[in-house]
Amino acid sequence: MESRRPGGRRPGNPPTREAILRAAIAAFTEKGYTATTIRGVARAAGVDPALVVHFFGGKEGLFQAAMRAGGMPARRLVDAVPGDPATLGERVLRRYLELWEHPEDGARLRAVVGAAFTSPSAADLVRSFLAEEILRPMIEAASLDHGETRAALVTSHLVGIAYLRYVLRVEPVAALTVDELVAWAGPALQRYITGPPPALPHGGAAPGDPGALREPPPPRAPGGPPA
Questions:
Q1: In the chain, what percentage of residues exceed pLDDT 70?
Q2: DSSP of the chain, one letter per residue?
């Protein structure tokens, strides 16, 4: 008796996973995080919703995988790393704005940033992705201390600028040219990236410094030596 080989792709093979991911990127870009559903992505990919859950665990996992995929442009911020560390802030901001100005890349970035403002869980994923997977390694590659703090501050600045300029279109931020915006905001990013940690009261250190847990000096007695 002749055996029959099932036609088409087997459920669960790598091409199927990639098809789901492509459908998810398209859905998040066109509909946003809130309106995208597991069923809708599964329908677009031609698979059962259970297979989406099998690969990605749910909507949050699917969104996280979409951000990490090559189809999402945020990873291209690393293109700005080579060069003088003293101008890294300006290069990162310029590269970031160039991605936003691109019609296709900008639409995908709007999906990512829009998700951060519509869903707390998505916001956590966006912050973690930008800070931990892109900006912190960039900063640590430059042998700078306080990488986590610096990356978080740069992330907050980048997301805030993009939201005001490209989502809310707040003036005059929306009307500035890329060169003007880089001239205004680039030095602030540079301060976050390479500036010295702030001096804290009582001779303390910035969070993460070895001296951060140092006890403050004892008070002086009126008119006398230190207690």
A1: 78
A2: ----PPPSPPTTSHHHHHHHHHHHHHHHHHHHHHH--HHHHHHHHTS-HHHHHHHHSSHHHHHHHHHHSTTSGGGGGGGG-SS-GGGHHHHHHHHHHHHHHSHHHHHHHHHHHHHHTT-HHHHHHHHHIIIIIIIHHHHHHTT-S-HHHHHHHHHHHHHHHHIIIIIS--TTGGGS-HHHHHHHHHHHHHHHHHSPPPPPGGG---TTSGGGGPPPPPPBPTTSSB-
